[in-house]
Amino acid sequence: MSLISPQVVTRPRKERRPEIIRLKKQKRKLEWRLKRVNLQVEFDNESVTAFGNFHTIETFKQAIGLSSIIKDNFSLSKASNSTYKAETVLESLIDCCCLGLSRFEHMEALRYDPGYKDLKGIRVFPSEKVFRDFLRLFGPEAVKYIEELIKINLRLIELKSRWEGPREVTLDFDDTVLTLYGNQEGGEVGYNPRYPGRPSFKIKVAFIDGSSELLFLNLYGGKTHSNGGFLEFFKTTEGMLPHNYVLKRVRLDKGFFDQDNFEYFEGRCLEYVCKAPLKENLRKAIEFIPEEEWEEKDEYVSFTSREFILPSWKKPRRFVIRRMKIEKETGQLTLPSCEFYRYEVVVTNMEESAQEVMDFYDGRATCENKIDEIKDGFAVEEASQHEMVRNYAFMLVKAISYNLMNWFRQAILPVDKSKCEIKTIRREIINVPGNILGSGRYHRIRLVANKVLASIIEAIKRNLDTFFYFVVNRFQPLRI
Asked: What is the number of domains present in the chain?
């Protein structure tokens, strides 16, 4: 069989001309029809920005003096011939995290955003390489700089505590698995419910209930148990509380169910609630609770409490039990006389009623939501660095960004938006295109006509005006 393709027979130009003329006419008609949408492109706009309302965050940052906080607490220095100082790179990283630009290649968007640079008063923005080189400065010997990042985070929380005033607080503790997709240092194959067998990190977190500050987070290898090193983590976290916050209660997941923890809390006169794993000895004890001891909330849910002593314990403790009636799916009709229950059990030293204790513990669900937010909204689970200390440094930068935005939304956003997730706030308020016009005192931004957004920005301006009184009063509560 021949591999030579048959030659294409070319018609004489005279025969092809009418068809060429016909195609050209049709092409001109198509171009005329599409002229309204097939626009000419010019690259000369030096005021446009993809983050039209970032100015509200920047105003808040400058009001609380974030740049000064970084400069006063961060001593990392770069080479003398570096274009950017370390504190400048750190603040730029915080800006990126606040805007949802968590990957280095995404951060390049600000480098080519003239409106953002005009607002910041800068001519150039650090490149992807600058950010990567900055994180490389956090070597194994850079413990000092890690501590300084933690200090910056605590300084933000301390200022916010002045804005809120003295109060008793509850700390929520939990841990979460961060799955790794490379050969990162410290990655271990441990418990990973979503991707069994993959290496991972584990982070422990502590949130302040009600106001949702991320007080502290620490990074561990994937084999670390939830309770591994917990008391040390707790003591470190407690020492970070601002002076006008008084720790009253602690809420824990079942991974922290341990007698040593309870003895420590009892010795410190701290109230605690910890979920209890339903092991065989506890299940058997629950089976022997008389029916008359159950207090019904409604026809489906009932509560009781009992003191039990587990085999390895030195003394009995109070267990609060919630019983929920469920229907067992058998594929056949369920007999009306049969009842099936699901139980939830917590151990506590609180003296409130069983239902009040359970309702209080249910508030720990906000901790799960906040973990999801630091993962989805601030990309804490993206461990992109090979060295563990660099991953931890980047996580602390994201923690600072989270607490900054958490304070911003509670102090500045209108009430109906102050509880929205950060991704919603970015989509609806911050990351909208606009043009920054004028200069100096006549700086202004033009956005697309949007009545809903206009009302939100108006409320933000009013809240900023009120917040300025707190700032000029040297971060002390107003007494006027």
From this structure: 2
